[in-house]
Amino acid sequence: MRQADSTIKGYLYQFNKSIDIILDSNDDVPVVLEGVIEDIDVHMPSAIKTIQCKYHEDKKYQLSSVVAPILEMLCHYCESTYLGKSVSYYLFAYYSDNVDEVDRNAFLDFLNTTKDKEILSKYFHRIYNIPDLTILSIANKARRTEQEKNQLLEYYKTNRTTLQLRVDINDFWNVFAYVKAEQFEVLKGRVIQKFEDLSDHETAISLYYPNVFSRIASLSAKETEAERIITKSQLMDFLGTQKSVLLNKWTLKAIDKAELLKAKKQHLSSAFASNPDVRAFVFTDRFLDESQDGLVALINEYLAKYFKKPKLQKPPIFLFGDRHVTLMQSVLLELFKYQKSANTGLIGTTFVADSFVNNQNSSPDFVCKIAMLGNISASILEQCNVNQLYIVGSKTEFPQDLTSADYTLEELNITDINALKYLVGLTRTMEA
Questions:
Q1: CB neighbour list of residue 101: distance below 8 Å, 6 or more residues apart
Q2: Is there a domain that residue 413 lies in?
Q3: How many domains does the chain have?
Q4: Which of 87, 119, 163, 304 is surrounded by the fewest CB atoms within 10 Å?
Q5: Which pTM does this prediction carry?
Q6: Is there a single domain that holds both residue 286 and residue 390?
Q7: For the segment 114-130, what is each residue's pLDDT rounded down to a tens digit?
Q8: Which residues contact 314 (CB under 8 A, 6 or more apart)?
Q9: Is residue 288 one of the residues assigned to a domain?
Q10: Hey, which residues does 280 pair with through a beta bridge?
């Protein structure tokens, strides 16, 4: 678990460093996240700058810990030199007990003495000239037999002292820099300060920082390089569109959960102060998996607060993820026990959109509309005069596109029913 937490924090550090670098770049310089070369590739007009991040709060620096990323850089430098490209390499590394620089001679000594089979088989043919064409052919294979692996390792053992590096190590060291990185919170604070320079403290910490963090994390996961490219000007354009803090797994990692939910609640408060609006809620399957036990209570509490004056307020719409037909039927039964009827749009077992939209075949005093999500489209929601749509979960969990110019859409990517109650104003404080 501790190793997993350390790995996650390493990714979070990388995202912060990506934001830091983008904000320091010129407006139209492309920055590639999860670049072809390293974690971050900055494509300047005359050269490429590559950045690798290593973050280990619970480890002391050892040369063996940074050899692999340096070797990756050296391999790329060998290729770039052959192609005449100008590239600089930066290794940002944080350790509990760190050093100011990597000693070049110590690195060379490692290459001359290492018995690490993975290092030998993965890197040596890429940084050394291998005159034996048979060995070179084996080394370049994507998959090797056990006999070929042993043959390769035996060759390196016998010929290591005569092998020549493909490039002058001094030339590589002139374009390589080991940077003693700052602690996680220091880097995060500097990034937030840069956003504060563009706005104010509250906007910076509660809107710009978490939303940009989420944006960078999302782009970093894209499949193609073209999708992972961003410039400072594009980031600034993105900031200009942000009105409400995003609520997803990345923003929840970017800032304290309580602060994030508080910021989101403040944004939503004006929407829930409006009586005449028709609000629709999509309960995704993932949310219902975690929170189905408290759903009837939530719906009853919502109706008690937001549909206590039928002449002034509009019945809400609740849509259930398609794996939870039985749960929807159970909720309808529980509402019936409380003498509350719902418009389901069902004629027998068939969903009829006109009945759902125009309230046909339902009790005239129905308190809400309830349906399975698979029966609903943006067009149906528009016909129901929906003003606000809240997706409780992620909109990636279902196939249809429910976006519309006729209503606002908020994605509340949570699975905690108490968090939902807090966000929609059913509780004043966030229950544990």
A1: 178
A2: yes
A3: 2
A4: 304
A5: 0.81
A6: yes
A7: 999 999 999 999 999 99
A8: 276, 277, 278, 279, 307, 385
A9: yes
A10: 317, 389
